[in-house]
Amino acid sequence: MIVFAIASVTSRKMLRSVIYLLFVLIGIAGIFFLIDYNFLAAIQLTIYAGGIIVLLIFSVLLVHHIEMELEIAKTTKQLLTGSLCLIGLVIFLITIYSYDFKEVKNHLTTSTVDIGTKLLSYGPGGFILPFEVISVLLLAIMIGAIIIAKGSKPSNKNNSSI
User: Fold this and answer.
1) Is residue 58 included in any domain, yes or no?
2) What CATH number does the domain containing 32 carry?
3) Residues 130-160 pLDDT 10s
4) pLDDT value of position 50
5) DSSP per residue over 43-98, as a string?
6) Residue 45 lies in domain
7) How distant, in Å, are the alpha carbons of 92, 99, 134, 149 from that of 102?
């Protein structure tokens, strides 16, 4: 995942960068599966690895040329960005290692949250209507993005008088 993340931000080809990002997101879903967070892993695969990456690929293919190469940032900007990332990593690690995590023993309660039935319910507390409204809204946004990306062709009218 780290190799693909670095390849995603250093690749000069836009489409390759998006594909590398797809591999990173699939790897994050794999980590969720390994720690037995199956719902988060499924959401990661469907929403991010499925939907967002497809949206990015469509936008790259519609707006830019596939062969388009991205600009290389100046060395000073690269060094500044790298140093800021390292500072953020150090702050993160210091915060994590300085916190006193307490072990919970004999904590065997389970929750019975029926997310699927709530998502598909149309009664009180159900989410099917907002889900459908958001899906129609996203469809309208995609159609609008395609129309804007295609643009209009210039007309070949001659305004000469006879």
Assistant:
1) yes
2) 1.20.120.1200
3) 777 777 877 777 777 777 767 665 555 555 4
4) 76
5) HIIIIIIIIIHHHHHHHHHHHS-TTPBPPPPPHHHHHHHHHHHHHHHHHHHHHHHH
6) 2-70+102-106
7) 19, 9, 41, 53
